[in-house]
UniProtKB/TrEMBL annotation:
<protein>
    <submittedName>
        <fullName>Permease YjgP/YjgQ family protein</fullName>
    </submittedName>
</protein>
<keyword id="KW-0472">Membrane</keyword>
<feature type="transmembrane region" description="Helical">
    <location>
        <begin position="12"/>
        <end position="34"/>
    </location>
</feature>
<dbReference type="InterPro" id="IPR005495">
    <property type="entry name" value="LptG/LptF_permease"/>
</dbReference>
<keyword id="KW-0812">Transmembrane</keyword>
<feature type="transmembrane region" description="Helical">
    <location>
        <begin position="54"/>
        <end position="77"/>
    </location>
</feature>
<feature type="transmembrane region" description="Helical">
    <location>
        <begin position="98"/>
        <end position="116"/>
    </location>
</feature>
<feature type="transmembrane region" description="Helical">
    <location>
        <begin position="326"/>
        <end position="345"/>
    </location>
</feature>
<dbReference type="GO" id="GO:0015920">
    <property type="term" value="P:lipopolysaccharide transport"/>
</dbReference>
<dbReference type="Pfam" id="PF03739">
    <property type="entry name" value="LptF_LptG"/>
</dbReference>
<keyword id="KW-1133">Transmembrane helix</keyword>
<feature type="transmembrane region" description="Helical">
    <location>
        <begin position="357"/>
        <end position="375"/>
    </location>
</feature>
<dbReference type="GO" id="GO:0043190">
    <property type="term" value="C:ATP-binding cassette (ABC) transporter complex"/>
</dbReference>
<feature type="transmembrane region" description="Helical">
    <location>
        <begin position="300"/>
        <end position="319"/>
    </location>
</feature>
<keyword id="KW-1003">Cell membrane</keyword>
Length: 377
């Protein structure tokens, strides 16, 4: 149950939180716009704003911990300067008790960030890259950037296409292949078009070859040869019509394929649950498991920084927040310090110097320990 003190603290904290979050989001969006502005000459304003809007969910997850620091340091620094904190302590209210409403707010923001990471950010990140190539820089023709590349589409399927039909926005010279042990199914098609998570292939031919059965041809007699050949070529499907079409379900949508493979900077399109599935995949190579562990634990650790940074921000605000300018500078210093430690630990984890879990959670553990010691001193 909220007391008058809790409501008073929240009235001071929440407006600063909202303004800080809007400010940080605006700064990040301006950075994206500035970097991409050289390619946006002549682009419709509405489309540019839509593209920037797709950045917002991912940016929010990144900046909410920074906004939490400002929302604690600035109001509590002012209350400490005005003597409000000293008055509450004189009345028997400890710093730990003052933490209660702000910690609750931190947990709510952590839950909100986890929800975004699971349900919103993966799709919005994919849409950012897809919208960039399909609507802004090469309208409707983003897939052209994948021409000549082998693209893993999920479900064990790999895509390759040699050309692109600009008039019909279709891939040409398409090849799909799916391996299962030493057996491969290859689909050749004249044209391919994305339909959601499906590929519609026109003018297709399907061949299934079992390479393990090829060894049986070496000592086959003339009588055995036809049966052995059937074991090698398990399926050959060539429709009579050159315009025949089929639909293949793949693991990546058009936007996700562009987000991951259109350029060297792949977007993060994995949800929290998908990151966990990849991390616990028993077939994953050790090096890939390290990367998967870092990705999964980071997706958990960063949202919970909304709670951790409350612990370290409050004592700094009370003890050192002498003026609004000093409080603002201190909030930036704490936020930047956290992200520096977080990124440094992640880099060490990627190099194998730290276990993935410790690398991702190291900044949270360090800042929580320091903050709690300062509060209890």
């Amino acid at each position: 149950m909220f007391t008058i003190l809790d409501r008073y603290i929240l009235r001071e904290v929440v407006p600063v939180l909202l303004v800080s979050a809007l400010l940080y989001v605006a700064v990040f969006l301006f950075g994206f716009f500035y970097v991409g502005s050289r390619w946006l000459d002549g682009a419709p304003v509405l489309k540019v704003l839509t593209w920037l809007g797709y950045h917002v969910p991912g940016v929010l997850v990144q900046v909410l911990p920074m906004a939490v620091v400002s929302a604690v340091v600035i109001p509590f620094g002012r209350m400490a300067t005005e003597g409000a904190v000293l008055a509450t302590q004189a009345g028997g209210v400890s710093l730990v008790r003052l933490l209660r409403p702000v910690l609750l707010l931190g947990f709510l923001l952590a839950g909100f960030s986890l929800y975004l990471s699971e349900n919103v950010v993966p799709e919005s990140n994919a849409r950012v890259r897809g919208y960039w190539y399909d609507e802004l820089t090469t309208p409707g023709h983003g897939l052209y950037r994948l021409r000549g590349k082998t693209v893993p589409l999920g479900n064990g399927i790999e895509l390759f296409f040699s050309g692109y039909d600009w008039a019909h926005r279709a891939m040409t010279g398409v090849r799909l292949q799916l391996w299962k042990d030493r057996q491969v199914t290859v689909i050749f098609a004249d044209r391919g078009v994305y339909q959601g998570r499906d590929l519609k292939l026109t003018g297709y031919r399907i061949y299934t070859v079992d390479y393990a059965a090829i060894d049986g041809l070496l000592n086959a007699s003339d009588a055995q040869l036809p049966a052995r050949l059937q074991q090698v070529f398990k399926n050959v499907s060539v429709p009579r019509s050159e315009e025949a079409s089929t639909t293949i379900k793949v693991g990546l949508s058009r936007d996700e394929a562009l987000a991951n493979f259109a350029d060297p900077l792949a977007a993060d399109t994995l949800s929290l649950s998908e990151a966990w599935q990849r991390y616990t995949d028993p077939k994953l190579a050790p090096a890939d498991r390290t990367d998967a562990g870092l990705a999964f634990h980071s997706k958990l650790a960063l949202p919970l920084a909304n709670v951790v940074l409350v612990l370290i921000s409050l004592p700094f605000a009370v003890y050192y927040g002498r003026s609004p300018g000093l409080s603002m500078g201190m909030s930036v210093m704490i936020a930047v310090g956290y992200y520096l430690v977080f990124l440094l630990a992640r880099s060490m984890g990627g190099l194998g110097m730290l276990p993935p879990a410790l690398a991702a959670w190291g900044a949270n553990l360090l800042f929580a320990f320091v903050g709690w010691r300062l509060i209890r001193r």
